[in-house]
Amino acid sequence: MSKSNTLSVSSPTARVRTCFGSHSFAVSAPIIWNSLPLAIRSSVSTYSFRRQLTSFFYNLAFRPS
Q1: What CA–CA distances, in Å, run from 58 to 7, 8, 36?
Q2: Other C-beta atoms within 10 Å of 34: how many?
Q3: By Cβ atoms counted within 10 A, which residue in 19, 32, 34, 58 is the most buried?
Q4: CB within 8 A of 39, min separation 6: which ones?
Q5: Of all helices (H) and strands (E), which one includes residue 19?
Q6: Global pTM?
């Protein structure tokens, strides 16, 4: 893990041979984690993380067009 709290996917194309395998937790979890804003990834408590994550996804789902 680096200073920006990102996770690396250890060469998914070499290990994953099927489309189903590319949807596995080991591949998709780091991609989703890295797509979160740094402020959420660097939360200091579980409560703060959950609150910010809920707000982030709420804003994605119900953002005015």
Answers
A1: 24, 26, 13
A2: 14
A3: 34
A4: 52
A5: none
A6: 0.68
